[in-house]
Design a protein that fits this description.
By secondary structure, the protein is α+β, with helices and mostly antiparallel strands. 48% of the residues lie in helices and 15% in strands. It has one domain (4-65). The longest helix has 21 residues, at 45-65.
Length: 67
């Protein structure tokens, strides 16, 4: 993840969180991240799963587009 700002913008758009694999507020040096839903209440399970799917797809596309 070279452009952290771009990835944070994508995460915010799709209501997901990017964090290190060791839990909330952890960083990573090996390029492996944990992606989780930021919203958990007030939406259907279908909507929450769709947020995750859309967010992960957008993050993958952005990662592939990095030089």
């Amino acid at each position: 993840m070279k452009n952290k700002t771009l990835f944070d913008e994508i995460a915010n758009k799709y209501f997901v969180q990017i964090r290190g694999i060791h839990g909330e507020h952890t960083e990573t040096n090996d390029g492996i991240f944990d992606i989780s839903n930021r919203r958990r209440l007030g939406r259907s399970e279908k909507q929450l799963v769709q947020d995750m799917i859309d967010g992960v797809h957008a993050l993958i596309d952005a990662e592939k587009a990095e030089p």
